[in-house]
């Protein structure tokens, strides 16, 4: 990969923001396909690939899936789900308690970055009613909703959120709790 590619990836990672306001421009099927491919290409523990996607374009379902207003206003929603059986069959509790979160998180982040690269806005939504979403999407018991991602052409350009400086969350050789504690205390003073 060239230096230009690395710069581009860095730029996409750095400038991606959670977008919560969308224009009413539609998303083409080929664009949506690219976004789904990005999610599908994410790594998964043992390559068990428990992650699946539900694409929702129907506005009546988008209305019901989340109480967060901007979800309704997006052009499409991808619900990232995991099929528990595919990971627990090999990894048991570790699969259920850890890998499903890693696997689905990797897929979500790929989707968010691909959206950014395609000029689209998106937002990772974790606050939803699991039971309601499962019922609405007719998920069987062994399939869990992990994230809701509204996607659309952005109608806002959000500021970067304040971040704890990298050097405060990076530790040399072992965990240095004092460093991060002192920093967080300095914010309260
Ligand atoms: C696991 C997870 C759950 C989130 N849930 C929500 C949510 O329910 N609603 C929302 O508006 N944003 C949600 N967000 C987006 C965060 O608020 C956002 O990523 C954070 O404020 C940093 O902003 P940025 O994405 O622009 O860097 C979630 C993000 C993550 C990673």
Describe this structure in words.
This protein is an alpha+beta fold and 189 residues long. It has one domain: NADH Oxidase. It is 49% helix and 14% strand. The protein has 8 helices and 4 strands. The chain has a 4-stranded antiparallel β-sheet, sandwiched between helices. The longest helix has 34 residues, at 84-117. The chain is globular and about 50 Å long. The N and C termini lie far apart (46 Å). The site of flavin mononucleotide has 11 residues, from loops.
> What's the gyration radius in Å?
18 Å
General shape = globular
Order of strands in the sheet with most strands: 1-2-4-3
Give the biggest sheet.
4 strands, antiparallel
The CATH H-level homologous superfamily: NADH Oxidase
Number of domains: 1
Strand-pairing-aware structural class: alpha+beta
**Distance between the amino and carboxyl termini:** 46 Å
Beta-strand percent range: 5-15%
Helix count from the secondary structure assignment = 8
The level-1 CATH class: Alpha Beta
Ligands = flavin mononucleotide
CATH topology: NADH Oxidase
Name the poorly predicted regions. none
pLDDT averaged residue by residue: 96
Assign a percent range to the helix content: 40-55%
Overall number of strands: 4
- What is the CATH architecture descriptor? 3-Layer(aba) Sandwich
Order of helices and strands: HHEHHEHEHEHH
